[in-house]
Amino acid sequence: xxxxxxxxxxxxxxxxxxxxxxxxxxxxxxxxxxxxxxxxxxxxxxxxxxxxxxxxxxxxxxxxxxxxxxxxxxxxxxxxxxxxxxxxxxxxxxxxxxxxxxxxxxxxxxxxxxxxxxxxxxxxxxxxxxxxxxxxxxxxxxxxxxxxxxxxxxxxxxxxxxxxxxxxxxxxxxxxxxxxxxxxxxxxxxxxxxxxxxxxxxxxxxxxxxxxxxxxxxxxxxxxxxxxxxxxxxxxxxxxxxxxxxxxxxxxxxxxxxxxxxxxxxxxxxxxxxxxxxxxxxxxxxxxxxxxxxxxxxxxxxxxxxxxxxxxxxxxxxxxxxxxxxx
Length: 327
Fold this sequence. Notes:
CATH architecture of the largest domain: 3-Layer(aba) Sandwich
Order of helices and strands: EHEEHEHHEHEEHEHEHEHEHEHHH
Number of domains: 2
Oligomer: single chain
CATH class of the largest domain: Alpha Beta
Shape: elongated
Low-confidence stretches: none
């Protein structure tokens, strides 16, 4: 059976988006090739019937360059993350080199190709990531529950949530849960301080993936404040669970939710986020007029088919067939 080397900068212990993608793609492809997930290439032996998919143009740059020396001009696809697209390819020569070495480029949401130079778009395709659909669980009737999911680091802009929680501190019928490890200790300290200042905000730390998904299912809203995204897992998990999203209006989120989505707020604008949360809370009691929460639910439901496992699987199979046929 042909072999695929899947390079990811994060393995199981990281429990982040890169690992979730690698693990899921291994499952999708196991019937057409043997997939080896590695953090670094070269492996001990080269093979005559291999291809490589590398997640992250900058963080996997050494593996990409090593592959290109063994298999020049052949069988290499590079998957671009948010930090690749919206930061690294503008400042990092190794990331730009990765784009040139690849025969195929993969982006994870529909706004991403616009971030590439025109000559690179010809070898670029969109493959939306997928998640299994889950039923919408019962929500609390007398209060609104929102959840934010993401490790505490600068790219996820948790400070916006901290500030919004403080603005909503007097609304005891609005609960905000925050899931994620403190990768930046200063942000962990800020989360602790927010819990003291806003009793309806809880930082829960890191949780297992399945428990996190259940909390998304039970929430009225998923909040996503990121400054930089390539295609957030939690957005598709919310959409596939019937949970509406409030998201920062950045390209990575617009590429997931669509240009006409009604739940955007300007990045780093805690006041706008708090106002949207209040509108959603108030609309739960509205029998006519502005029912924002229902509007968002319907819009997310229309996007959910993009994140179906069978769509991602078919796109991956096509990509791998093309790579293996590239002799």
